[in-house]
Specification:
2 strands, 4 helices, about 55% helix, mainly alpha
Length: about 180
């Protein structure tokens, strides 16, 4: 029988924030290409949410049950835009996957809006079915761009942190650290 014994020589790893006398910088966030990528990702997420909102509201009376998925996508995309604006890199791959799924659904659903633009179908509330078909198919290139820019942003290292000593602080950075247990 094997027993695992943990040593108590190391203090528990607790994130207590930046230590006094240490300045944390994010060097990749200052680059213009990285800032442009972040702005583009936020813009594409908001454009996608706006397109979905227009399609959802305008076609509400003829939608057949997928309205909850559209509303969920709108909420998720707005939340992802918020987090991407705060330099959260973790939402980018999830946004790319959701964009691929949404592009597939939009590619399949677009032609059905054009089929509804004939005599005998119930009219939509605000916009004609042809306009909704164009807006639905417009989602596809927006999602392709979102996938590209999200993956570009993910590879740019938004999360890279560098620590450097604050020249104005004392020279002993570990003076305030509690003593280590024996």
């Amino acid at each position: 029988m094997v027993k695992a014994v943990m040593s108590s020589a190391m203090p528990p790893l607790v994130n207590r924030g930046p230590r006094p006398g240490v300045i944390v910088t994010h060097p990749n966030r200052d680059k213009p290409a990285v800032q442009a990528t972040r702005a583009t990702v936020v813009f594409l997420l908001l454009v996608s949410a706006a397109l979905l909102l227009v399609i959802t509201i305008s076609g509400w009376n003829v939608s057949e049950g997928a309205v909850w998925a559209q509303i969920l996508y709108i909420i998720i995309y707005v939340a992802f835009a918020y987090y991407a604006a705060l330099w959260n890199r973790g939402v980018l791959p999830v946004a790319a996957v959701l964009a691929v799924v949404l592009a597939i659904f939009a590619l399949v659903a677009g032609p059905s809006w054009f089929s509804r633009d004939k005599f005998g179908f119930e009219p939509t509330d605000e916009l004609s079915a042809g306009v909704l078909g164009v807006l639905t198919l417009l989602i596809v290139p927006v999602q392709v761009l979102l996938v590209g820019f999200a993956m570009r942003g993910f590879s740019q290292g938004w999360n890279v942190e560098l620590e450097r000593r604050d020249p104005a602080a004392s020279t002993d950075l570990y003076a305030e650290a509690p003593p280590q247990p024996a």
